[in-house]
Design goal:
It holds the Pfam family p450. GO terms for molecular function: heme binding; iron ion binding; monooxygenase activity; oxidoreductase activity, acting on paired donors, with incorporation or reduction of molecular oxygen. This protein is an alpha+beta fold. It has a single domain, classed as Cytochrome p450, CATH 1.10.630. The protein is built from 14 helices and eight strands. It has helices at 2-12, 34-43, 77-95, 99-115, 120-137, 143-157, 179-207, 215-227, 232-263, 265-279, 293-305, 338-341, 393-410, 452-485; strands at residues 18-23, 26-31, 315-316, 321-323, 326-328, 333-336, 411-414, 446-449. A hairpin with a 2-residue loop joins strand 4 and strand 5 (326-328). Helix 4 runs parallel beside helix 13 (393-410), helix 6 packs across helix 9 and helix 9 (232-263) packs parallel to helix 13 (393-410). The longest helix has 34 residues, at 452-485. The N and C termini lie far apart (70 Å).
């Protein structure tokens, strides 16, 4: 879809930077210029920050009070208070050094890649899911179901998902003869029940003093009155959505990082050299990030070259408007075409190729100083616009720095060899799903430890981190048990 919209943009946008189309009766203003997107969705955000209805999801905008899906929600009271809560939780988590969770899971992932490199795409997704499950419920064992739940919702909300998202009248067939509605009923009810179960389970553990800090405990400690949420059900949905969104917004860029490094070994070598010199042989941390501009440049160029949400996420106009002499009716969808923004030849010379140097050398128009701060992925158009801008930009950047830094420290990322011919098995550049948030189609590659010593160090780091995590959990539980057993003296 993004390629066709981009093609039409070259043909119809002209100097305007936008064009109008209609898909099965829905008017869509496709924006191909960043300045237009800024004008419509930031400067005029007050009237252009609604979301269109996703037909194949029950009450996606929460118009009927479902309160379930913050990123899809209409501009209403639920959206406003859930957005405030999410921003507060993510900010407090970073201030509380959530990096420890990321380091722990990155070390686990390195060992999984050493021991089972064939299943790297599954372990990559699981790593991102484990980080989010620890932050939300302090339980990495929930990661498999969380990732499955994220895939289900992502498919359901995408134009390339159920046909009822495109041919919407089919959705209104009676449920008894409507397979799409029955499938969504099953997915929805199962997901909502699981989210609610997590709140109930967290409360039970808190009663025993066994629940360590996490977003669910944070909500229950403070109570719904302080959060302005309506109660446990709404809280379970907010926290559940934080977990789900954090899976593919990290898994997608990280998957494309692997592809970029395989196709550009010279940049892989430069990142490895920078890490070796600046970190003196140890695995990099977020404290090292200001001294690792090449690593950050390759991450940012990956996200520019292979954007995670190439179509952008549509806004819906809340009022009639006139823009540059064109009448735009209330209900018109504004589609900020991220693929077009990131292929702008003036801002990004040679946009179709991978050039991390565009962020590192003053001769490129995107260069910014100081290099201790720039390049940064925060503020990229891929994170959305105005009042709908993604709240997890810092978390995404931190997790990518930790994961990509760990990969570069431990492995040479290479094409896999065909055992019969000895030739390299190609890693495709243009094969992906067509969902709203894209990830590459399955491919093969090799993870070669950079040395025997580096391999052994990765194994040692995970063994040490795993033992420490188990010890801390045991000590927390022991302390809770002792507190419960301690006789009261205030009677």
């Amino acid at each position: 879809m993004w390629l066709k919209f981009y093609e039409w943009g070259k043909q119809y946008s002209g100097l305007n930077g936008f064009y109008m189309t209609e898909i099965l009766g829905s008017p869509i203003l496709v924006v191909t210029d960043e300045a237009v997107a800024e004008e419509l969705m930031v400067k005029r955000a007050r009237y252009n920050s609604d979301r269109p209805t996703i037909r194949s999801i029950f009450d996606s905008k929460s118009t009927g009070g479902s309160m379930e899906y913050l990123p899809l929600m209409g501009k209403n009271q639920y959206w406003a208070r859930q957005r405030r809560l999410t921003h507060a939780y993510l900010t407090e988590a970073r201030n509380a050094h959530y990096s420890g969770v990321m380091y722990h899971e990155a070390k686990r992932w390195l060992v999984r890649l050493i021991e089972d490199p064939e299943n790297f795409q599954s372990s990559l997704e699981d790593m991102a899911s484990k980080v989010m499950c620890q932050l939300t419920w302090d339980d990495p064992n929930l990661s498999e179901y969380c990732a499955k739940s994220a895939r289900g919702l992502l498919t359901q909300m995408s134009p390339a998902g159920p046909i009822t998202n495109v041919i919407t009248p089919l959705w209104h067939l009676p449920e008894v003869i409507n397979p799409w509605k029955r499938a969504e009923r099953k997915r929805h009810d199962e997901q909502q029940a699981w989210w609610m179960e997590r709140i109930i389970h967290t409360r039970a553990k808190m009663a025993l003093g066994l629940q360590r800090p996490c977003f669910a405990r944070q909500y229950l400690e403070r109570g719904h009155k302080r959060s302005n949420l309506s109660g446990d059900y709404e809280a379970s949905c907010v926290i559940g959505m934080i977990a789900l969104v954090g899976v593919f917004t990290v898994a997608g860029p990280l998957s494309y990082w692997l592809i970029c490094m395989v196709h550009h070994p010279q940049w892989q070598s430069r990142v490895q050299k920078e890490i070796d010199e600046e970190c003196h042989g140890r695995m990099p941390t977020l404290e090292d990030a200001p001294r690792l501009p090449t690593l950050r440049a390759c991450i940012k160029e990956t996200m520019r070259w292979k954007p995670n949400v190439p179509t952008g996420v549509a806004h819906e106009m809340e009022a009639n408007d006139v823009y540059r002499g064109y009448f735009l009716a209330k209900g018109t969808r504004i589609l900020p075409l991220d693929w077009a923004f990131l292929r702008n030849e003036t801002k990004y010379p040679d946009p179709g190729n991978f050039h991390p140097e565009r962020w590192l050398e003053p001769s490129w128009p995107t260069y910014q100083e100081p290099l201790t701060q720039f390049p940064t992925i925060k503020g990229m158009t891929s994170f959305g616009w105005g009042q709908r801008q993604c709240l997890g930009q810092t978390l995404t950047q931190d997790e990518l720095i930790v994961a990509c830094g760990a990969l570069s420290w431990c492995f040479n990322l290479k094409p896999k060899k065909d055992l019969a011919t000895g030739a390299d098995i190609p890693v495709p550049l243009d094969k992906s799903n067509s969902l709203l948030i894209i990830i590459p189609d399955p491919f093969q590659m090799a993870f070669e430890p950079r040395s025997s010593a580096r391999k052994q160090e990765a194994l040692r780091l995970w063994e040490e981190s795993d033992a420490r995590d188990e010890r801390e959990r045991d000590e927390f539980a022991k302390h809770a048990t002792m507190t419960l057993e301690k006789p009261r003296t205030d009677i």
